[in-house]
Amino acid sequence: MTDQLTVTVLGTGIMGAAMARNLARAGHAVRVWNRSRDKAEPLAADGAYVADGPEEAVRGADVVLTMLYDGPAALDVMRRAAPGLRPGTAWVQSTTAGLDALDGLAAFAREQGLVFFDAPVLGTRQPAEAGQLLVLAAGPADARDTVAPVLDAVGSRTVWTGEDGAAGSATRLKLVANSWVIAATSAAGEVLALAGALDVDPEHFFAAIAGGPLDMGYLRAKTDLIRQGALTPPQFAVTTAAKDARLIVAAGERVGVRLDVAAASARRLERAAELGHGGEDMAAAYFASFDGEPSG
C-alpha cells in the first residue's frame, strides 16, 4: 500500500471491530468509536485511536465507515458526528440498514456534502477477522480509488452494483442474499429438532443427503454448532439476524412480494431471543422449536 488513509470506524461490534483491526494492519490511521466504549477500547492495542464521541472520531477523516446495528442507529450517530464532518469525505455505509432507512442515510449524505457509498458486506465473524468479507458496493466511479484501499483491507472481493449509492442496489443484493442465509439457518435448526423428536439419528439424515444436491457445507456448519453447544461467541447473533429478517420482509412488502418464509424466520428468531438466546449464534433459532428445553 502506498497511501495511508485516516479511516474512522463507527460501531465496533463483532464486524466493526474486525474491520477496524484489518484496516490498522493494512497501515491506515484508524479511529474508532462505539456506544459502549468497552467494545472499542481493545482496539487501542491494534493501534487504533479510541475516540470519546462520533464528532471527535470523524474529524479530519478521509473515509468514515459505519457498521452499526441498523439504519436509525447509523443516522443518529452520523448526526452526532456532523460537526466534525467535512464536505467531500467518503462515507462507506456498511450497516445492514434496509431500504426505508437507506433513503434517510443518503439524504443526510447529500446535506453534508459526503460522497456516499452503499456498502454492506456478506460474511460473519471468521471472514471478518480474516479480512475475507465480500463487499457489495455502489457509489460513484470517480471516487472509488479513495475507498478501494479500505474495501481491500476488510474484504477479499468487492462487487460493484451501481454508481449511485442512494439507489440502494448493494443493499438490495444484501437483502436477497440474507434471505437465503436466514431461511437456510431456520431449516437447519428445524431438521435437528424434528429428528430428535422423531428419534431419528441426525447422522442418518446427513448420510442420506451426502454428496447430493441437497447437501451443503452451511447446513453442516450450523448444525454442528448446535450439536456441539458452540453457539458463543456468535458468528452472527440471533438478535441481529432477527432484525435483518424484518428488513427483508419490509423490503418485500415495499415491492409487493409476500415473503412467508422470511416472516416465519423473523418470528422464530425473535422467539429464540425471548428464550434467552439473543446473544448466541443465529443457529440458536433451533431452540424456538421447543416450548421448554429440548429433550436431547
Mean pLDDT equals: 97
Number of strands: 9
Helix and strand run = EHEEHEHEHEEHEHEHHHHH
The Rg value, from CA coordinates, equals 20 Å
Unreliable residue stretches: none
First-to-last CA distance: 53 Å
Query: Sheet bearing the most strands, described?
Result: 6 strands, parallel
Number of helical runs? Answer: 11
> Level of helix content?
40-55%
Shape: globular
Structural class: alpha/beta
Q: What is the strand arrangement across the widest sheet?
A: 3-2-1-4-5-6
How much of the sequence lies in strands comes to 5-15%
Helix and strand topology:
Layout: E1 6-10, H1 14-25, E2 29-33, E3 49-50, H2 54-58, E4 63-66, H3 71-81, E5 90-93, H4 98-112, E6 115-118, E7 121-122, H5 125-129, E8 133-138, H6 144-154, E9 155-162, H7 169-197, H8 202-209, H9 217-228, H10 238-254, H11 260-277
Parallel strand pairs: 1-2, 1-4, 2-3, 4-5, 5-6, 8-9
Antiparallel strand pairs: 7-8
